[in-house]
Amino acid sequence: MVRKVINLLILVVAIVLVYFYWHKFLSLADTTLKYLKNIILKYVLLAFFVYLTVIVVIAARWKTILGYLDYRFKTASLVPIIFGTVPINNLTPANRMGGEPLRILWIKEKFGVSYTPAIMSVLFERISEAIPGVILIGFTLYFMISFFQPDYNLIRIIKYILIIILVLSLAFYIFRTKLTSLRVGFGAYSTKLRPALVPALLYSIFIWVLDATRLKLIAMSFGVPISFKLIIIVTILFIVLGAIPLTPGGLGIVEGGVIPVLNAFGIPLGVAIGIVVVERFISYFLGSIIGLFFLLHFGGLKIWKNKG
Q: How many CA atoms lie within 13 A of 211 on its CB side?
């Protein structure tokens, strides 16, 4: 009920803004279209290729984790499941809210993996992603403070110390609470998966690098230089804002958060909008279309309906 009220308020605010500023929106849309017409297509295609690579790497990571649980698969066997969950993720509020349960159901129905190891493997993936994610969040907070307070002073130093404490606390929470709960809840599975942490972590770091590379390529398609720190900030924002459970796939929320940040760091507003539009076109539109093919062709939709 609360979510519906919030969504309604967002819609009302959007309508009011369009009503009072429609002429500015039209002008901005025209500017953005001009930038989009002049993009360098080869970089967009490379960004799409990187997106496809991420899907394969995620499947390879899952295969590796399942291997430590005594389930042997080829990466190619898991790619349809990973891709098939993309449209579900994009149609449900919060990242992976719908996709992760489908993965667990799908691999059980198709390959006979029991619920407990299937759930364990997915949770372990999330942990391996969270570790570098916490570090990147720390960098993001550092860069944001550096941007808004460029002069060194005592207050800034204190804030940096607080950021370090926050990041270390989050890391400690992940290792202490999450890993302990997994060890207690799944017993022998934690022993089997302990050696999988390093390879899973390396896969997760590689995925973060690929995500940042995709953003860099999209910016290059507009002929805009984008700094390393801005890439990290925007990459984190895409993940964090997309996880807010208000709209399907974070539509509107992600764009509303990322575009102002890009603009604040010196990217022209029309280009900032174009960058987000192209990124969402790849990850949301094209990803959903390809994922829908896998969802239909490999029986994922039938599994989802039967168990939903």
A: 22
> Quick one: pLDDT at residue 19?
45
Distances (CA, A) of 71 to 74, 77, 107, 182, 270: 10, 12, 11, 19, 49
pTM, rounded to two decimals: 0.78
Beta-bridged to residue 93, according to DSSP, are 248
Collect all residues with Cβ–Cβ distance below 8 Å to 259 and sequence separation of at least 6. Answer: 269, 272, 273, 276
**Residue 151 within any structural domain of the chain:** yes
pLDDT at res. 80: 92
pLDDT, tens digit, for every residue of 201-211? Answer: 999 999 989 99
Q: In a 10 Å sphere around its CB, with 0-12 CB exposed, 13-18 middle and 19+ buried, how is residue 198 labelled?
A: exposed
Question: Which residues are within 8 A (CB) of 166 and not within 5 positions of it... i.e. 6 or more apart?
Answer: 138, 141
Phi, psi of 265 (to 5 degrees): -90, 20
Q: Is residue 78 part of a domain?
A: yes
Q: What Cα–Cα distance (Å) separates residue 258 from each residue in 30, 64, 77, 250, 275?
A: 20, 33, 35, 12, 10
Q: Which helix (H) or strand (E) holds 49?
A: helix 41-68
Residue 74 falls within a domain, yes or no? yes
Number of domains in the chain: 1
> Which tokens hold the place of 35?
């930038």
